[in-house]
Amino acid sequence: MEHYHYNISNSMLQAYLDCQKNKACFYEFYHRYVLKDYQPEPTPAMQLGIWFEYQCTGAMPRSNQVPEPVTLKNGNLSADYKRMLYHIDKFKEIVDNYNIKIVEVGKEIVHDKIKGILDIWCEIDEMPSIIDLKATGQIGNRWEDYGWDDRNFQYSTHVLQPAIYKYLIYKETGYEDIPFYYLVFSTKNTDILFWEVKYLDFDKMCLQVEDLANRLDEFIENSDESSYTPICDYKVCQKCEMNCFYRQEIPKVETKFLKLNF
Asked: Do 134 and 50 contact (CB within 8 A), yes or no?
């Protein structure tokens, strides 16, 4: 069995869970996270978020290139980027109002194979804390897994990341259940969410993180390429930039059986 070198990140674990739920493609997962011969380009929404984070904290993206905004022909910021100027000022207000001392941005923590990169490692009223910055157009969206809304938060894709970061801090420093905050800014309007994330049972949370990482590690170490089955789903394929043999360019015909009840 071929041996691969990788760290298990939040995005990798979430992608693995999505593949198990048939919401993502194992074949794409294999090339992106295991072989590492494919990496999608940042979408315009991601580029906006990268620029916003750089303006707030000075954090450099993984490309190590200073993010540039999208501008109009006259040199002015495009509407989306101009809208975020309000939030940049609000970020500074929040930092001052809550007595946030930023200690480090882009702090990397690795325990065994599990890896996390903290947007903001800080102190809030002298208490060590983590803040994760988000710029999104999904505030108030309760219908999608990636939406930000009280009504679906428990079932969203945002519940895993705080657990991983809390686990890593605990294992590396001994600090149990470090405060973790999502600071979420809307790219569509002036909405802002500032949520602290807590888990009902910290010890159980740690065991669940370890179990999930171990299951993924075992799957990779004991699988070959044939184990990474392509999903062959039109909707999923349209979001993927890989030009692979299995790509579905048109939807399949699906038969739906119904029964009239009247």
From this structure: no
